[in-house]
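Board notes (copied after class):
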Amino acid sequence: MDKTEVAKLEAYLRKTFGMKNIGLRPQPKKNDMAEVFIGDEFIATLYRIEDDGEIEYQLQMAILEMDLEDV
């Protein structure tokens, strides 16, 4: 993902979730993936998938059972 694409995705996530502190950090060794952070906390991965000329983005977030104990 290039800088323009990352900026658009970041703006989309911020608007969609109503959070200004969501950020994307592209992975230098993987041009189709970025990590999603809220502040300094990693929350998910975002994948760029291209198939038959169409592009989609998939957000994958894992929630551990132990994280639910504090709720």
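Comment from the instructor: The CA atoms of residues 2 and 31 lie 8 Å apart. The chain is about 20% helix and 45% strand.
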